[in-house]
Amino acid sequence: MKKISSIIIVTLILFTNTLAWSKLEDKRIFHINSWKKGKSKIQETKLLIELNNKTPKFKTKIKGIDGKDKYELKVVPKYGKTKNELFAWKLSLTQGIFNKELLRVSEYKDEYQDYFDYHDYIADLALYQYFDIIEGDSGGTEGFPFVPLLDKRSITIESFDFNFQVIDFGVKDRENLLFDFVKIEASFVNKH
Fold first, then answer.
1. DSSP designation for 121
2. Global confidence as pTM
3. What is the number of H-type helices and E-type strands within the chain?
């Protein structure tokens, strides 16, 4: 009986390690150009962002090449009916007093309009972006294409790239596609 229990435990550990390893392999890069054009450069920065229900938000300033605060990067949660139903995170990069979203292909698209294209969802992180791929549905919700959760995303803004990638995540509720945590690597890199 102990031998069977040991075999089951070893098999379970190997399966879990294989699942975790396969979760992080075969990543592609999805790239868009922001509507914001120009020659501005930034102080290059690397970030590791770890979020969960207890720490669901992140905010930091990104400095221009002159050392002054120029952009603000935020990661905010999207909830269902309660704060226990964390189903997505949204990354946002804004500049100045107008707070126009720079992580989009069009300057005028806002969160509530009806005519999105999938490029405007590059900064959204949701579990269906992972599970739909595993289950063989690359069309996304209602046939709408999406960026797979673990793919690297790159956005050219003015003369720099903002790159980010989910490197790990936890599932709180698989049936309702609720996150437990997410870990994101991000970088701001000047184009030379």
1. G
2. 0.78
3. 2, 10
